[in-house]
Amino acid sequence: MKLLWVWVVLPFAFAQLVTAFFDFNETELSLIESLEYGVSKINYNPLMVGLTLIHTAGAKGAVCLDGTLPGYHWHRGYGSGANSWLIQLEGGGWCNNIRTCVYRKKTRRGSSTYMEKQIPFTGILSEKAEENPDFFNWNRVKLRYCDGASFTGDSENKGAQLQFRGQRIWLAAMEDLMSKGMRYANQQFYTVTSLEACFQEPQELNALVMLVYSLMRKVDVSGGHTIRSLYSGVVGLQGVQHNLPRICTNHLDPTSCFFPQNVINHIRTPLFILNAAYDSWQIQSSIAPPSADPHGYWHDCRLNHAKCSASQLRYLQGFRTQMLNAIKGFSMSRENGLFINSCFAHCQSERQDTWFADNSPEIRNKPIAIAVGDWYFDRTAVKVVDCPYPCDKTCHNLVFR
């Protein structure tokens, strides 16, 4: 059995991207927000879990963008799972300049003042064995994301009254959870959404699961570098460079080391990657963002894959190939695991309908929850890659309106 770091590139953590960044309209933003907590028609009555503020964090300077206390949602484990912990790190995009960070600090992505007091626990966070067969009775924690740099920054801007303290939030949260029993854990499983905390590898663990991984494409459809420009701003503004892995920054610049594909091969612990080959967030934000598509050629395609032209689908097939090539070295390790399905989706672990349901996505008749459990508990090796779109008929593809 593996001790586990679960990185879930969150079902949606799916990025509540700052409006100013990628020009999402209100309808698109509302849909993204509705994806975040994975509520679906198959789970009308999910467990609601309250927000716990970390009261010791203030003295450590571990605060959200606006200076408020950070927090998490925790449902206590029991029985065989009483000493097992699943920690999900919330995702939600980034802010790369003063303007977007000031906007962000007035939302739940930058202030606990605006965070929901209760959120539903579904999918990998569900407390029902029939919905979450391997982790239902574990201690399950969702750490809220309110810093804007994937829990890695440590800086401030006094003029704009902004605190970039993601690294301190991470440390304060871990210390608080340790005091509540996690120090006695015999199993830990960390999930992250998007890129969140992918640099925070717990030294004492011997396995890590990253549920949902996104290869960040460096060039968009116009040949520009939308995502690199964004990352450069995040790294420089929030003091991220000081907390990036030295093994990466010794040979690459800090911005390059914020790209997950440049980090995963340096992770020492066994890792599981769950991802959609046609990641919806990638299509929206780094492949065909509005800024790279001024004439709207990609507008319909990026909202609904069924409206993509033959040439656009070929382009997206190229993205899939690029992603598979990027993780080729990773997949050669006998200890690592893979589940790459050919869906237009993002962060499929927290939504109940994609994590584990009667009609959830499968590869070779194996749904995501069973694949992750099989790998984690050493029931069988799991390295499955779907055939290219449109072969998979089990997908729950995202369509934006």
From TrEMBL:
E.C. code: 3.1.1.-
Record localization: Secreted, Cell wall
GO cellular component, one term: plant-type cell wall
Signal peptide: 1-20
Keywords assigned: Cell wall, Cell wall biogenesis/degradation, Hydrolase, Secreted, Signal
GO MF annotations in UniProt: pectin acetylesterase activity
Subcellular location, principal: secreted
One annotated GO biological process: cell wall organization
Protein purpose: Hydrolyzes acetyl esters in homogalacturonan regions of pectin. In type I primary cell wall, galacturonic acid residues of pectin can be acetylated at the O-2 and O-3 positions. Decreasing the degree of acetylation of pectin gels in vitro alters their physical properties.
Family classification: Belongs to the pectinacetylesterase family.
Protein name from the UniProt record: Pectin acetylesterase
